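Researcher: Going back to the complex we discussed earlier. I've cleaned up the inputs and rechecked each line, so this should be the final set. Can you rerun the prediction on the complete assembly and write out the structure?
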Amino acid sequence: MLCGIIVLVIVLHMPTGHAATQPVKANSAGMVRIPAGSYRPLYTTPRRAGPTNPPRSSPSQRVVVDPFLMDAVPVTNSQFLAFVRDHPEWRRSAANRLFVDTSYLRQWRGDLDPGDLAPPASPVVYVSWFAARAYLKAQGKQLPTVDQWEYAAAASESLADASRDPVFLERLRIWYGRPTPKPLPPVGSTSRNVYGVRDLHGLVWEWTLDFNSALVTGESRADSALEQTLYCGSGGVGASDFEDYAAFMRYAFRSSLEARYGVANLGFRGVRHVEARP
Amino acid sequence: MTRGVLRSVVLAAALAGAGAASGCREHRDALPVAQSQAAGLASTDEDASLFALDLTFTDQDGRRVALRDLGGHVTLAAMMYSSCTSICPRVVEEMKAVERRLPPADRSGVHFVLFSIDAAHDTPETLRHFAGEHQLDTARWRLLVASEDGVRDLAAVLGLKYRLEPSGDIAHSAMLFVIDRTGVVRHRIEGTGTDSATVVAALERARG
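Model: Rerun complete. Updated structure for the full complex:
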């Protein structure tokens, strides 16, 4: 019965960033500046059907992404170890079960001992959304939004927007099909994109602040009666760019998460707000 | 239904949806993450209290209310926002139907809480107006709004999906939550149209 209720509704953004292609070096906090840009989402936002509001799709809107700082690499086991040393409430044996499930830091040998399966320079995984948020809050950072992450991740080594580059997309497809190596390789081991950010693809998947914004219904149709019993406002969106299989998979994955989950190859990195340059 | 079952269905639906939409079913096997997610099915911690979340709200009368202040009573809760014209009124009507159906002796033991997901626009005034419009007895009903970050955390612990739309609408899943006196979510009811007798029974069970 639930199958009827739940299906993902996918939002695919097509990045059309006007991002400068000048690589930026990481600052002392290990962050690089991602210039402003915008998305022209391919999705359409269906409206709820109603007497005065027939099912329709609104024209695509541009979604502006302000400049921000992003960690050049994901958070590592050694960094997370330092955090749990300082914050005992986030140690594996102490973390509140409201915020983590039983997989929390499962690959670590002990509370303060990552062990062989979690080398110091490898990305920390099996962390929940709450744990990631707590870590980043302590650093004065936060999780990237889906928009920020997708925007930054659309860049290849040479293009700010590689979302239509078949070579780039094929590479992602290959990674998505590979099993996760154990232990995970160190951060920074994959290619660096045009902004100087590494590992957005090819190492681990990453938490986003609004991972739970991919609404799901039984039918991704604006006029579905079922949808109207489940959702307020526009329930979901229709995706149209199925070429970007990798982006589709990311959205599917996010929609399957809950905030307390830990996953074997789900890590995170931080972002920080910056003022736009004149 | 257990959360574990729900989880697996979400996963299955995500996989099915992705496979169908990509037109490449063989790629279903190419999902290292989602597969490891499935391995997490066994981990259920149904007894974690929401009160571990250090959250403060403002209610319809401008009073400060901590999440843990909801303790001591069984609560039927939903997330909504007061300018919502589509499903929120329906959810509220269903909650009222439950209220009417409760045996009079039990009525005072159950609290009804509406958490706003519209931190940017909901205020004590809008919430009070909403309560008036829907004739909610504020002796039993509380309408609460938190900060944007607070809303995010609350939605996360409750498992509610939502998205702020450029139009000002907030797309969100319709869910009712039965919370026991210690802050444990005993039932999550998805969608509208659930028979109020079912919800009443869930409330009775949560009273324990």
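Model: Worth noting: Chain B touches chain A through 67 residues (CB under 8 Å).
Researcher: Good, that matches what I expected from the previous run.
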